[in-house]
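Hello again, I could really use a second opinion on something today. I've been staring at a protein lately and its backbone has me curious. Can you walk me through what the tokens say about the fold? Take your time with it, there's no hurry, and the full record follows here:
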Amino acid sequence: MDTNLSYPFIACIFNNTINYHVNYQTDLNGLYYFDNNYKYYSNEFISKYDELIGAVGTYFNDSGIDYSFDVYVNGEKIYSQSGISEFAGYRTIVLNDYLYVNSGDKFKVVFSSNTLPYEAGSRRHYVPEMSFVSVDGESWSDFSLENKTVCLKVYTLADDSIMVPVSNVSAVYEPQSSFSVKVVTSDGRCVIGALVEFTIDDKTYHVKTNDEGIAIFKIPMLNPGNYTLTLSYKNQTINVCVLSVNEGNESQNMTNESVNSNPKLESCGNPILMVILSALLIVAFRCKRKHF
């Protein structure tokens, strides 16, 4: 062993292929040491942009360590992931799905491992109520009071997500019938927590994408007539034609047909320029006529 080397020392392996947008961190100087008294640690940040949480980063003191973490946005847990450390040292852990956050949203990562990696001895003043540690995951302490901070980073990406209609949707128009869209990134990853706007009959509804990146809208009961269901996400719009013919109590199949064309439908059948997607939803009611 070379006694001229001091512990801890770090070797860097650069194998990242993802272009991250922002690195949220409190440990600017990096790892100081590990504290075996704590198994849970957390960092909390405020988003500077409308962006996607794509990865977290922390240190491990050995390979083969079981870990897990939860991500909270504005106090709500929206994501969990677990794994096993591949090696000792720093590891960037890419999320299986990306998480949407708006500018000004408060988000935090709660990490569980076999020990706590931390930074100490900095000449900087650590921000209070930002970095927390816990023995049991229930009772938490502000680590800045010990003039320390946890080594836990959060990486975000610029938001390039789009919504696409769920293709070949077919259902019976009943009170629980629905129309669904999926929000994905350019590389096909699902986006959790994205807010999709649905407007029909002069009423607007907001639906967040679930853990599969899908926003599901339950179509309300409608009076007879033609309607346009407008889906909006960022600068993208999808218009869906809805035909309600209410002449009785029996229902018939409704069909959603995704149309991959450049025009969108401003109203049923009227194309205009400068749009990406359109879809057709036809809802029909029929009844048997009484004969006297």
The chain has a mean pLDDT of 80. The chain has two domains: 22-158, 162-282. The radius of gyration is 25 Å.
